[in-house]
Amino acid sequence: MMMPLVVHSDPLPPWWALVLIALLLLIQSTWMFIDARKRGRRAWLWGLWGVLNCPSSLIVYLLVVVWADYRKKRE
């Protein structure tokens, strides 16, 4: 006797949570793009990467770009 295949899927989060996540990613990537352009640091790369995830791309950006520029100014 074959058992029927049952697929369970989790329900989607509420619409306002999806809008909030999309807004957060858009704001983060826009800020990273503008700041990278001011610093002359591959703005398109950082802007696109900022859209993909949050907050790890922001943390990496702050360490690689902002902190490196801060250290150069201090020396």
UniProtKB/TrEMBL annotation:
<keyword id="KW-0472">Membrane</keyword>
<feature type="transmembrane region" description="Helical">
    <location>
        <begin position="15"/>
        <end position="34"/>
    </location>
</feature>
<protein>
    <submittedName>
        <fullName>Phosphatidylglycerophosphate synthase</fullName>
    </submittedName>
</protein>
<feature type="transmembrane region" description="Helical">
    <location>
        <begin position="46"/>
        <end position="68"/>
    </location>
</feature>
<keyword id="KW-0812">Transmembrane</keyword>
<keyword id="KW-1133">Transmembrane helix</keyword>
